[in-house]
Specification:
3 helices, Double Stranded RNA Binding Domain, 4-stranded mixed beta sheet, alpha+beta, 4 strands
């Protein structure tokens, strides 16, 4: 089974200035972390506060999911960083 993203949830981490989202490979949950700089590179007009980054993430969601699918390799790793 390929990596799927049935859950549209995402979460902002102010300490790390990043957005987390989750994918699933069968029953395994895979965590993806997208740093604020990456989101800004996709949406240069986005602000740097939580609301702005989450909004920019939502607007770029399909592109970020595509990047996540390319990074993902089935195996023991369950955490990926997109930067």
């Amino acid at each position: 089974m390929a990596l799927e993203f049935p859950n549209p949830s995402r979460s902002y981490d102010a300490t790390r200035h990043c957005v987390y989202f989750w994918g699933y490979d069968n029953s395994r949950e895979i965590t993806f972390q997208v740093d604020g700089a990456m989101i800004k590179s996709l949406r240069p007009d986005a602000g740097t506060d939580e609301r702005s980054l989450l909004g920019a993430f939502d607007e770029c969601r399909e592109r970020l999911l595509e990047i996540a699918r390319k990074q993902y390799v089935a195996g023991p790793q369950n955490r990926y960083s997109i930067s």
